[in-house]
Every structure is written in C-alpha cells, then in structure tokens.
Amino acid sequence: MRIRRSLGTAALAAAAVLAAGTVAPAQAADGTAPAAASVAVLTHTSLGGPNVSVGDVLAADLVAGTNATFYSSATGTSGIKCATSSFSATVLTNPTAPGVATESLNTQSFGSCTSNVIGVTGVQSITVNNLPYTNSVSDAPGNPVSLDPTSAGPVQTTVVLKTILGTITCVYRATGGLSGTTSNVGQTIGFSAQALPKSSGPSTCFPVGYFTALYGQVRDISVPGSPIVWVN
Q: pLDDT tens digits, residue range 102-138?
C-alpha cells in the first residue's frame, strides 16, 4: 500500500507541473517575461491590431457621395468639382505610437470633373505634378496630416479647361505643403480648403484654387483582403 501511495503522489505532482507549464508565461533566457509587441502609429484590421509594414501600399477613393473640389474661394462653390478621385501611398516609416508615420504619395487622380466657371465649357484634365510627395500622419490630438513636397518639386496641380475660345491651362502651386486630418470614424483622410495659388494661366483661371476632399476607407492593399487602416 505504501508503494501505491507513493506512485499516486508522484503522478499528481507530475500532472501539477505539466498544468503549470501550460499557463505560465514564456520567459526569456534571463528569466524575465518577454515584452509585448509594440503598437505602431498605423495598424490594420483594428485599433491596436497588426502593425502596418514599411513598404505596404495604402489606397483610398473618395468617400461615397462626396466630391473633390477646387473652388475659387475657401467658402464658395464656384470652380471645379470631381466625382471621382483616388490615391495610393507607400509606407516609409511606422514607428511605435505615439509618433508620426510617413508615406510617399505616389499617385493621385481625378475624374468626372465639371466646372461652373463662366466661359468654361468643360474640364479636360486635372494632373497632380511633381510626385511623389511626403505624407506625414500623426496620432497627436486631432490626428494632423501634412502633405509636403520632395526634391521632385513643389505641390502642384495642372488643370486643363475647355472654354468657348479653346483650351486653357491653369497651374496651381502651394507655397509649402497642405494640411489635413485623419479619422478612425470611417478610416478617412481629408483636406479642407487648402490654398494653391495660381502659378500660371490666363485670367479665366481663378487666382487661388482651394482644394477639398475626403478619402476613405483607407486600406492596406498589400495585405490579403485589403483591411482598413487605423491611427493609434
């Protein structure tokens, strides 16, 4: 009986050790628990989800039901509006939050554009020049965004308009960068009434173009399923 009790005791002890091993946290060689994975400024799928990898491409179209506009004043409705617009940007840096992630804006396009400017009969094209730009996304209060020029040249847009006398070309150039914001409500990035003064063009081209657009949902198209992107 004494032998049986000893074997039973040993079996219970071994089971306890195995059970403890299944719940005890893994330890590093020095006996400390490993640090939790850090959350970066940009994650995909969810807030605090998997970090967006450097080199991933982010993309978005206009929020459904909105237009991208180039108006002649910050509060008016005279100028140009486009029913479609999209962008793509490559992630350059994505540090641990809090911080600032940077992207290279590689493409930005506009389509289905119309104008209500007197003498203008249509919009032939809108082209964003001097790409890429640097897009900086911060998780500071207000989630500010800065779109800045690179060595390729200033932030600039060329607008070709059809008029009753033929086509005209209007070039609009920002004095520096453009400012915007991101939001985790709808995973959007937006710009409101950002001024681009006229660099060249006839008098039919209004003196300053004010750019407004809201893009979303922003998605990481380098990841299967193109999950939405969050700012942490």
A: 999 999 999 999 999 999 999 999 999 999 999 999 9
For the beta carbon of residue 141, count every other beta carbon within 10 angstroms.
6
Within a domain: residue 186? yes
57 within domain boundaries: yes
Query: How many domains does one find in the chain?
Result: 1
Three-state SS at 81:
strand
Phi then psi for residue 15, to 5 deg, are: -65, -40
CB 124 within 8 A of CB 167: yes
Q: DSSP of 134-176, one letter per residue?
A: EEEEE-STT-EEEEE-BTTB--EEEEEEEETTEEEEEEEE-SS
> Is it true that the peptide bond before 217 is cis, omega within 30 degrees of 0?
yes
Element spanning 100, H or E:
strand 100-115
pLDDT bucket at 33, cuts 50 / 70 / 90: very low
Q: Which domain holds residue 101?
A: 42-231
Q: List 200's β-bridge partners, or say none.
A: 171
pLDDT score, position 176: 93
Helix H or strand E encompassing 7: helix 2-23
What is the pTM (predicted TM-score) of this model? 0.83
Judge whether 143 and 150 are in contact, CB under 8 Å: no
Structure-token match 């081209």, residue found: 205
Is the pLDDT score of 67 beyond 80? yes
**Residue where the block lists tokens 């641990």:** 96
pLDDT in tens, 50-59: 999 999 999 9
Residue 37 is assigned to a structural domain of this protein: no
